[in-house]
Amino acid sequence: MHEIQQVEPFRLDVLEDHETISRVALHRGGAFSMAGAVACLPARDEAERIEATLRALLAELGIGEGVVLVVNGSADDTAAQALRVLQAGAAPFLLLDIDWRAGHGSAPLARRLALDCADQLAPGAHLFSLDADTETRPGWRAAYEAEFAGGAALVCGAIGFDPAEAALLPPTDEAAETVLREYRAAAREIDARLDPDPINPWPHHGNIGGANFGLRAGVYAALGGLPVTPFGEDRALLRRARALGLPVRFSEGPVVWTSCRFDGRARGGLSDELKRSRSESDPLVDEALEPAPALERRIRARLAYLKSGDVGARALVVAGLGVEPDAVEAAFQAGSPGEAWLLVEAQSPELSLTRLRRSQLAAELPALLRLLNRVRESAGDPSDSARSAPHAPA
Questions:
Q1: Pairing mode, if any, of strands 154-161 and 248-258?
Q2: Does the pLDDT value for residue 262 go beyond 60?
Q3: CA-based nearest residue to 211, from 304, 140, 312, 123
Q4: CA dihedral 90, 91, 92, 94 (to 10 degrees)
Q5: Alpha-carbon distance 391 to 385, whole Å?
Q6: Beta-bridge partners for 129
């Protein structure tokens, strides 16, 4: 988990005065007053891909649904190419061409700017997050609508690689990739069995990516905006939604294909991970992957805290995690038990994350599989709860 930066909300009428922006040019087309949905994209030096991204998106959006595109710190003609495509389409749009003040710019900040503006232009609209090197697949918009109709507040769609680009990727260590996939799947199943979620019967992809998530109308404001972190703002948003008790759906319905290039624009993103996996002998892996004892301790502590309605019992859980008394008090003053748990988890030395390397995954996998088998034997089928509770359609 990464520290959330405190950033003043972006307001369209005073963007030029915002502490992070040094220059802004706005281009508008059409009216957002009737927009039932708005797609939000950050873009930086994406002249080669932005046209395909926007054309695929415009083909999916319904009548009156809009686009907010933030072109930030670009040195190429991304803005000009995007404006040409948007002006030729029927969708209302806002294109912001900006430069950041020194030391402020980032992809998470640009995504926050796009979402903030979209929420102001169409406060009653669903909001979608995409990347500028990503193409929506047929049925993307309808799949989101079905998930929202089923009650989901945050929908985490599926992300695949562009097949043509994937075919050109240099080879990787297949045995190591198999271990990585098995480790990730086992960790997610352990969580799903220990803490079943009726809206997400196992199996599910269990992931969120800025390249493909959607927020039901009104949810963005309830979340307090997109958290701004050095990277991983999408996961921070997911943690926030869960802390507030909002229904989150991991769906295979809305699908996008994204670039699998190595020269990505966002620090800590997919491109960095791909590059590490194919250029380093023993790369770091996803920070969410941890040894079996640490994973079990985290899940069981979370459950003990959230499922106890007694303040004294929660205090015992927190004390056992080595959290300082002042932090304990701050946690108890938080707005909800879920928000309090986020503070506890961030403050606890017992739950601090240590990133593993690929070689360590192979060494840790047997213990994780033993834990999975033990959990399977003692816990019920995580899909059972879905049979007795409503959930969003797949």
A1: parallel
A2: no
A3: 140
A4: -110
A5: 10
A6: 40, 213
